[in-house]
Specification:
The protein is an alpha/beta fold and about 210 residues long. It has one domain: 3-Layer(aba) Sandwich (Rossmann fold). It has 8 helices and 7 strands; from the N terminus they run H-H-E-H-E-H-E-E-H-E-H-H-H-E-E.
Amino acid sequence: MPKNHKFIPALRFDWLTPLYYPILRWVMREDQFKKELIQQAELSPQQKVLDLGCGTATLTIMVKEVHPDAQVTGLDVDPKVLTIGQAKAMKAGVSISLDHDLSYALPYSDGAFDRVLSSLMFHHLTSQDKQQTLKEAYRVLKQDGRLCIVDFGPPVGLWARIISPVMARLEEVGDHHKGLLPVMMQLAGFRNVSVRRRFATVFGTLNLFVGLK
């Protein structure tokens, strides 16, 4: 990973990072949408899974617990959350790999994974980095591999429409609110792109996107 690379931590400030994951758990229906994300991945025995932007490895660990024979790797740009993730994995008694690198310059060979999953990572990226990350996800997937993403989509409902301008000031959600993420997935090469589920949260509408290589 480039030494001069700068990134914006969750909640924008490094000292707020410890608060981000309790917020996810308490007000974002994290357990529900991550279970659905794993279900939509349709994993087969002994497949290789990449959790892109894994944070403190909650989803990474959940995948390993549901599919113990899977080879599960998490990747994140923030070394502090990876340290927390390692401790969580040790406490859970699961064996996972956690890598420190960039989502748009993945350190893996072509076709290295059967599935790429991502939970609430894409809205932290600029439009350019979103598109490059999707291209990288496509590259590291095997043929007929599957990409599953949970992230913000167009606001559905009164509250989501009220909160969306606030979120647009805090995060890179403009593409999401305009419904452009599926288009960007298609531009990266994915086929049969669809929205499988929607989840109403206090910060807006989450969509579960699925695309095939």
